[in-house]
Each structure stands twice: as structure tokens, then as C-alpha cells.
Design a protein that fits this description.
It comes from Helicobacter turcicus. By secondary structure, this protein is α+β, with helices and mostly antiparallel strands. The chain contains eight helices and 19 strands. It has three domains: about 170 residues, Roll (ibrinogen binding protein from staphylococcus aureus fold), CATH 2.30.310.10; about 120 residues, no CATH class; about 110 residues, no CATH class. The protein is elongated and about 110 Å long.
Amino acid sequence: MNLSTLQKFATYLTQTPPLKLRAIRRIGDNLFKLDVNGALFFIDLRRGKSTIFTTDKPLIASKTYQAPFDQSLQKYCFNAQILKTELDGNNRILQLLLQTQNSYKTSQITLQIEFTGRNTNLIILDSNNIVLDALHHITKEQSFREVKIQKPLLPLPQPTTAPTIRDEGELFSVLAQNFKTLKAKELEQKIQKSTTILLQKIAQIKHFISTLEDKNILESNAKQEAHFGQLILQNLYLYPNFKGASITLDSILITLPNKAHSLSHAAQIFFENSKKLTKKAKNIHLQAQNLNEKLAFYENLLKMIQNVTNYNDLQILNSNFQKDSIPKDSKHKHKNKQFESFFIESIKVSIGKSERENIALLKEARAEDIWMHIRDIPSSHCIIHCGKSKISDIILYKAAKILIGFTKSFSGNYNVDYTRRKFVKITQGANVLYAKEQTLQLKKD
């Protein structure tokens, strides 16, 4: 927290007639909302990140805080007059002298807000500097400066060298900018976390690609297994009671499978292995294709995540690789993932990575779902699984933005056509004819 801004905030709060602290409530573990004559200020007391900010966006508590400290805030600070506000010398400690009045008596307390690096705190003190309550209680074993109810609070030593005062500008502009800076840092951290997850997925896929077996080697091994089985069958009558671990036939040393309990059983295992290897060789290119499609998808997703400018878009992109929320008893839990999906305001949006996935997506979509495609460019099909529900323009725009994000084409302007699935006719493969479409115009950076 900047000392100069803290001084300006203290000056603002000390007015004649006195401003009224209508309420102070905790809306996060270390986040407090202050209502001062109807103006809202937010005190963030996270260690190492403490600040004061304002915002027009509604910040709502994720839960109701009813700890003893929260009750003390209501008891001592609710609807209180701010008689005086000052700083504790050159320490980043803001002290609000508050006065509350009821039908019985008038009382004064000090609300001390400490923006001191790793030791942030919010402390309620009586007129004798005795701690009435605190956000963080600190024992003698933890620090020389004990913070404990009914104990006096020792002053924090002043800095040995005078701090450099850096004027950040007009108070309310600074407080508004503090919120933007705070959110930008949080977004950066979340982007970095998502980037790490995706880089791990990309590295894993690359590893799988590098370890794929060679088709020619698989076919050669399949022929060898079949040949071993054939040799054994041709010579089976010569060794009716053979019990060895290997056998030489036609000058070829054949090591028998460990599981074989007879020569005939060994021949059966060799033929089964040959069939498996032949099938694997036949399908190895499909496995490679699927892995490369997945790799390209995650690499594009990584670029999109690294370029997001707001948390909402990041949440949408993150929804692709977050754990499924399908109930354990769902009949669909074992269904293979045929295409990629995202969630925009709880609406599922699916993208095909290949012709095969585009066909599967078109077949699965319901008649009233919305179909999307980039006009005049070979690209993925997109389905918004909304049924007859009316969806907002924001969902349409976000879905189209994701669609063009995965196109391999150049940056620039794109026309994205969309219509109900029932107006889309499959002609061949994933090629379609469609009608009653509308068009969105978007730009890809």
C-alpha cells in the first residue's frame, strides 16, 4: 500500500462535519467493504498484497462471515462517526477514531488498519489502547508485539530510514486503478496456472507420439508370430509331451510364451499375438492422427488462454480441461469423448477437431441446437447445445470467438454463419448445406 495514497485517504476521511462509517463487513477472508456516507471502499488485507480500492462492479461475499471478530465489527463500528483519521508516523497503519452513540452512552474506539507487508491486520482498540478484538490474534511466541484481547497493543517501531513518498495522483483515480491492477495481477496468475496445466498436457501428448510403435515393425513382428505358430502346428506330432521353455524348428530357435502350458497352447498364443499386432499396425495411423489432432487443439487453446484479457473468458476456456461434473451414477460416465466442449454460462458448446469429430457432432446435435461454421473456410463445426432455449448474444459471440480461435487460417476478419441444426443438411462426410442462417462478423488477432 502506497504511503502517499494512504495519507490522502486519511485526509479524505477526516471532514467537518464528520463522515459516518455506516458499516464495515467482511466479504472475503481478508477483504472488507466499508460504507462511508454511501461511498464504498474495499480494504484488501492479504499479506504482501494489501491495498485500498474502489470499483463499480458488485463484489458479493461468497459466504456469510459470523466469527466473533465479525460480530465485534458490528458492535463497535456500525453507524459510527469518524472523528479523526491519521497515520502512525511513517508506518503504513491507518487509525480511525470512531464514536458510536446509543440511548445509554457514547463510546469511542480506534479501528486500526495495518498494511504492513506480511503482518497485515485489523484491530479494534479502546480509548486506553487495549485490544477489544482483531482479525489476526498474535501470541508472544509468534512476535514481540502481542495482539490479544484485553491486552495493551505495543506501538510498531518506526522505519529506521524515512520512506520515499511517491505521489500516485488524485485519490479516487488511484483507488480505482488499484482495483484494475489487482485484477490484472490475479488474471496473470490464473493464466500462468492454466498455462502450466496445458504445457503438461502438451508434453504428455508429445511423449505418447514419440513412443508410438512403427507400423512396419509391428507388421514384421505379426508375421514372425504367425510363422512361429505355423511351425509349431506343422511339427506338433513330433513332440507329443514337450515340456521345455524353447524349441528349435527348421533351424529357428523359438522361445515359448511363459503362459503356454503345451506346444499347442503356445501356437494358439502366437496366432493371437499375430492378430493383435496386425490390428495394431492397421490402426496405428489413427492413433497418431488422434494424438496430433489433440496436440494441435491444446496448442491453439494455449495461445487463446495466453491472450485472454478478462477472467470470464479464461473461465470459459478453462472449462475444457477441468474435471467433468458428471454424477458418478450417470449412465454417460463411460462414454468416450468424441469432441471438445466448453461451457459458457452453463451452456455446453462443442467443437469438432477433425472430419470424424465434425460428423459425430452433427449426428449428436438436436434439431433445435444452434450450428455454427466459418463461411467459405474449411474449419471445425460448432454446436451450441441449447435446444429450444433462447440464448443471449453474448453466448453466440463467445462461441464464435472460440470457433475462429481454432481455425488454422490467417488473422483478420471472419464471417461466422449460424442457424438451427434442423436447417443443416449433410451432403457428404462433414460437408453440409444450410439455410435460414444469420451471420456474425468477428476479428481474429
